[in-house]
Amino acid sequence: MDPQALKSVVGSGLLSFPVTAFDADLQFDRDAYVSHVNWLSTYPAAALFAAGGTGEFFSLTPEEIPLVVSTAKQAAGNTPIIGGCGYGTALAVQIARSLEKAGADGILLLPHYLIAAEQEGLYRHVKSVCDAVGIGVIVYNRDNSILTHATIARLAEACPNLIGYKDGVGNVEAVTMITATMGDRLTYVGGMPTHEGYASAYFGAGVTTYSSAVFNFVPDLALTFFDALRRSDTALCNRILAEFFIPFGAIRDRRKGYPVSIIKAGLRAIGRNAGPVRPPLTDLDAEEMSMLSAVIETSKTLVAASSAASR
User: Fold this and answer.
1) Which residue, 61, 145, 154, 240, has most beta carbons within 10 Å?
2) What total of structural domains would you count in the chain?
3) CATH code at position 103
4) How far is 308 from 163, CA to CA, in rounded Å?
5) How many CB atoms are closer than 10 A to CB 297?
6) What separation in angstroms does the CA of 65 have from each of 46, 58, 86, 221?
7) Does any domain span residue 171?
8) Is residue 43 among the annotated active site residues?
């Protein structure tokens, strides 16, 4: 997909990132993954991030990443697929090229590995990846890869295929400086864990779309919340936050790594198993699964009440 066309698509609606399905031996389960991506693509997500953070990018080999992305591309129909990319510069360039060859519509550049770096080093890293491919690149601002508005401006000037900025830090002041500086040169994506809890503040900062993890297993609720947010239905947003996202977040925060583990658990709870998480992550225990199932039941009530109110 042309980078500018992808930029427009990404900004047009809700985004999500499918979990990567594994079998009991922790190998990529292609059939389960195809089934999951195909199901998600029947809902109106603007684009899907394959092999992203919730897709356990960090546990995939460089050979598995383009395989996962090409499989998602085959399964997603007309839904654009943006592939996860990262690690050190040389490896990130290699992965980016493999994703372009695999048919990805764009790239989500996750933080480089381990070490902190100065802005000049981050600039060179991102520019190297953008220069290596012709497809659109979205840079993910989080952890040890935090770009200032000045660096983003330099990159936007040097890299025509840099189309987006995704934030997972939560510094709304810094985000506002970037959106105010760059205007419509980029598309801005919210990327906080369970971003629905931050979405209203980010909307005020000029970030009008985000990636929803819970879309993996409660897509109707994710879309209901997103639609309510865009039409400024504060009462419905607050009800969904109070009755679903706050208790969901309490389970998510019980263990390290659960922002990913709980999404696969949600799929198990609705009978669409994508397998276990790979180490070093751990799966939810039986008590936590029971708690999550109760929260999912609440989501059904919220969607039904919203549908009834709109009739």
Assistant:
1) 240
2) 1
3) 3.20.20.70
4) 39
5) 10
6) 21, 10, 11, 29
7) yes
8) no
Answer yes or no: are the C-beta atoms of 85 and 92 closer than 8 Å. yes
Q: Is 30 among the domain residues?
A: yes
Non-local CB neighbours of 247 within 8 Å, separated by 6+ positions = 291, 295, 298
Catalytic one among 140, 188, 202, 210?
Answer: 140
pLDDT score at 308: 73
**Any domain includes 273:** no
Tens-digit pLDDT profile for residues 84-111: 999 999 999 999 999 999 999 999 999 9
In a domain, 245, yes or no: no
Write out the DSSP string of 68-84: HHHHHHHHSTTS-EEEE
Q: Looking at the chain, how many residues does it have? A: 311
- The C-alpha atoms of residue 115 and residue 241 are separated, in whole angstroms, by 35
Lookup result for tokens 């996202």 = 245
Domain residue limits at 181: 3-217
Of the residues 7, 33, 87, 166, which is catalytic? 166
Q: Look up the pTM and report it.
A: 0.96
